[in-house]
Amino acid sequence: MTEKKEHWEKVFATKQETEVSWYQQKPQTSINFFIENNISKDAKIIDIGGGDSYLIDNLLEMGFINLFLLDISSNAIERIKNRLGAKLEKVTFIVSDILDFQPEINFDVWHDRASFHFLTSEKDIAIYKNLVTNSVVKDGFLFLGTFSENGPLKCSGLEIAQYSEAKFERIFGSDFIKINCFEENHQTPFDTTQNFIFFSNDRKLVLSPLVDYLQNKINTNEEIRLNFICTHNSRRSHLSQIWAQTMAFHFGIKNVFCYSGGTEATAMFPKVGETLVNQGFEIQKLSQEENPVYAVKFDDNQHPIICFSKTYFDDFNPKSNFGAIMTCNNADEGCPMVFGAEARFPIKYDDPKAFDGTDLMNEKYGERTILIGVGIGYFIPNSADFINSFSSGTTNIPLAIGLILMMYPPLTKIDFSKVPKMFENPRLLTASFFITWIVGPFLMFLLATFFLKDYPEYMTGLIIIGIAPCIAMVIVWNELAEGNRKLTAGLIGINSLLQVFFFSLYAYFYLAVMLPLFGIKGLELDITISEIAKTVGIYLGIPFALAVISRFVIKKYLGDKFFNQKFLPFVSPITLIALLFTIVVMFSLKGEMIVDLPMDVVRIAIPLVIFFAIMFFLMFFVAKKIGANYRDAVALSFTASGNNFELAIAVSIGVFGINSGQAFAGVIGPLVEVPALIILVNVAFWLRKKCF
């Protein structure tokens, strides 16, 4: 018998029903939920951790006939059985720890007013969340009641996790639509008051018509023909067509044929092709007229996708038995009725055309691709299952290879022979070490715990980011701001070595020691220093060793000129390609979350932007104070303010898993860093005029 089960068996063996704080003769709040949502009398309803609650009695009196009661205590179950008498036949009793529960059916209503807040570790919460998601039918309901942030810290002598609306949304928002959330005071039999928060939800129906359409086609083994339609068939519709066809193939969904068209024909915008080439597609221009024809290859053994601008009713497109997917921003109002379509599905994407010719053009076209990947990751059936099928534990094999490849190119560029020269200027080295390795991690820790205390996965993700100084993109920022190249190279070398040997210790210190020391409750990290060290060894140690070996061997046998002019330009794009692969895969897996919780991106971005700014200005003015010139100050500042997001993403995925909030925070990082650091490059030039 486990310690937890033993505890609850003792409670229900030694205490009468009125001697426990949760006693209610008539649980009116729960009863109101069933009335207000017009729950069918034959709905399959499960009450989690119900103990000897009177909810089942009241539901039976209301006419419900398909009830399930789960509790860890057999004593509690026996007590309610004795009370119900002949009504037992309408109730199925289950004695089980909720974390061990393996339901054989799906439920219309999942009710839990007693057990969820006893789950205090992220691992247990994730198990519970997945159990709920997989057990509640598509149009079903979730009703949760827990102690609020104004409620007790313990119940029945056990630690609990307090909840707020934001915390509920963070955990369940990707799969359920909130119906209501409110706080309520519960009067105990001992005349004390406990503040509860209740959260009622309906299963989300976002994109479900399209999902159902595709699934029905798959079930009946019919061809799936999708026509992506926008006004000019020049940007969004082509990106959607190409990514849908590509992902359907790679996710093993057969008989999928994707098309695109518009209300008028123009031409596929050239930047669309450039964006796709940057993301690994091969594109051949087959004609040179004003409306060129392109062949887009996504696999060596598959026919290319033929792309050119055309109307949706062009002879190249299907005339009947297809699904019309409207990619216009105002698809419902602005796009026409599509004749011949079996069904019509509005999926809105903002037009990147507004940024044509601007400095944000590349960024916005890449952003459109990510958002299209988000949508496709939701509506292509089983895409997440397919990606996760290549996993071993928390390690996704293709993604692990991609993460190692992502780290390799920047490490090959580091000339470790320059590291000893750094010790010739101990003042600069000391200032850099103190601010980058002492102030930086602690600052990110403070920002993460202040802004993301209610989002523990994001909080720990940001802490991991804060202890990984940049060793790659800092070269770009330093170059743009006309900083000292040799100093930057030396700092990168030192930071790389420090990360290899000390990152694991730093991560363990801040996550396992500092969080409890600062009284962060409701978060239990089941990690060890060996887990972190193993992950760092794989994702930093392997590419580090390969980089050192390849640098030595190539320079020795092929010379410096070949290494610098041939090899480095060849391997450099691998980092961007691998990073884009990571982003697309993760955004596909987390697509539902991005669609429903866009504010989470903002929540993660705010502390990151503050971190970049504080670290840059602090290092810059400290450098000036100790006598550094502009070029040295810039090199020090960008080294201190940038982060090694590649390593942070790899560690988060390796330790917490690809679906974790920590990994999600890591992916958001570079999307925030690029525009923020570009702004700081311009700030550096302004400071040069003012201070030097």
TrEMBL record:
Provide the protein's localization. Cell membrane
CDD domains named in the record = AdoMet_MTases
Keywords on record: Arsenical resistance, Cell membrane, Membrane, Transmembrane, Transmembrane helix, Transport
GO BP, one annotated term: response to arsenic-containing substance
Q: Where is the Methyltransferase domain?
A: 40-117
The molecular function terms in GO held by this entry are: antimonite transmembrane transporter activity; antiporter activity; arsenite transmembrane transporter activity
Q: Which Pfam families match?
A: Methyltransf_31, SBF
> What start-end ranges are recorded for coiled-coil regions in this protein?
none
Entry GO terms, CC: plasma membrane
Q: Which InterPro entries match?
A: Arsenical-R_Acr3 (IPR004706), BilAc:Na_symport/Acr3 (IPR002657), Methyltranfer_dom (IPR025714), Na+/solute_symporter_sf (IPR038770), Ptyr_pPase_sf (IPR036196), SAM-dependent_MTases_sf (IPR029063)
Q: How does it sit in the membrane?
A: Multi-pass membrane protein
Q: Does the keyword Protease apply?
A: no
Membrane-spanning residues: 390-408, 428-452, 458-477, 489-512, 532-554, 566-589, 601-622, 634-658, 664-687
SUPFAM superfamilies, alphabetically?
A: Phosphotyrosine protein phosphatases I (SSF52788), S-adenosyl-L-methionine-dependent methyltransferases (SSF53335)
Family the entry assigns: Belongs to the arsenical resistance-3 (ACR3) (TC 2.A.59) family.
Which PANTHER family does the protein's record reference? ARSENICAL-RESISTANCE PROTEIN 3, ARSENITE EFFLUX TRANSPORTER
Protein name per Swiss-Prot or TrEMBL = Methyltransferase domain-containing protein
Q: Per the UniProt entry, what species is this protein from, by scientific name? A: Rotaria socialis
